[in-house]
Amino acid sequence: MNAGTSSPARTRAPRSFFSGAKRVLSLPIVALAGVVFLVAPASQSSAQEEEGNVSDSLSEAVTAYLDAQDELASLKQQQEDLEQELDDSEAESAALRTELEEYVYIASTTSDLQSTAALMASGDPQDAIAAMELMQFLGESRADRLNELITRLQEIEATRQTLADNIEEQEDVTRDMEAARDEAARELAASGGDDAVGPSASDAPPAEPFEGESNGCTEDDPTTEGCLTPRTLHALEQAQIVGFTRYVKCYRVSSFGEHGKGRACDFAAQPDGFGGNAGGDDYDYGQNLAAWFVENADELGVQYVIWYRQIWLPSSGWKSYSGAGGEPNSDHTNHVHLSIRS
């Protein structure tokens, strides 16, 4: 099946970090050339004009939660790196201790009389002197390096404890941010944000991960005359590359939500614009697209997805979203709303 149809739920095979870097390059050039951004007339922008049900409090709560998650992941990576450095330093320290013990043994068994005899018997006294100086240098350099390692091991132990404390604190912060995010979602949904069964797994290819910085609305929006953040433009391009090429519109002037910040797009279920409730192939297209955004949330930096009276939030999954206006635009039954984090 293609990106415009749904598929039964399936388990996605894990993919390596480096495999993603080659995926787009493997697509035929003709296929990439065929990717276009479909722009409909201004009269078809009613979904954006009606949309505004996602509160700023939810947007801010989700962003704070994702930032807290990032900080926690960074601290845990620092901890992992530190543990590796500790293992390496302890191994090097043990090896140096062995070498120093051997050096001390050799030096202690070589008396001044033996050294003098060796010098007198040597055909080239300079060679003998050089050898003795080298032996002394190696002993001193090993001792210096061992002292450095001992100091570093002490520093690592202190840093380990600090990191452990920081991680514990950050886990508390992350839990608080998660609770605030869920509370905002419950306030948003008239049903109280009850768990919902979201779309099944998508059959579209995986997305390439976003790389680089995404600070501000700095990129031209190909669907409007507005702007997008680099991360949002990447998500839009990836969706089009894998086959989701129906009508889409992103930026609009707004004092709330992500559209006015260049961090949101509305993907119509119908080929030509925002119509009535999606059904048949149009519904399958929306299901497939919403599932794809969820599956690639980490790669794309998804903040949340809304589709067919349901909202997906990071780690909490799909929730009911029945507090809209009872028509296709605000109920999101004719388009998939995608919000991207900053």
Task: Write up what this structure looks like.
Helix content is 51%, strand content 9%. About 14% of the residues have low confidence. The strands form two sheets. It has a six-stranded antiparallel sheet. The protein has 342 residues and is α+β, with helices and mostly antiparallel strands. Helix 3 packs antiparallel against helix 5. A hairpin with a 2-residue loop joins strand 5 and strand 6. The relative contact order is 0.18. The two termini are 33 Å apart. The radius of gyration is 31 Å and the shape is elongated. It has two domains: 182 residues, no CATH class; 113 residues.
What structural category characterises the helix and strand content?
alpha+beta
Give the ordered list of helices and strands. Answer: HHHHHEEHEEHHEEEHE
Overall tally of domains:
2
Fraction in helix: 40-55%
Q: How many beta-strand segments?
A: 8
Give a short account of the largest sheet: 6 strands, antiparallel
Note the gap between the termini.
Answer: 33 Å
User: What integer value in Å does the Rg equal?
Assistant: 31 Å
* Rounded mean pLDDT score: 74
- Quaternary state reads single chain
Strand order of the largest sheet: 3-4-8-5-6-7
Overall geometry:
elongated
Strand residues, percent: 5-15%
Flag low-confidence runs: 4-46, 49-53
Number of helices: 9
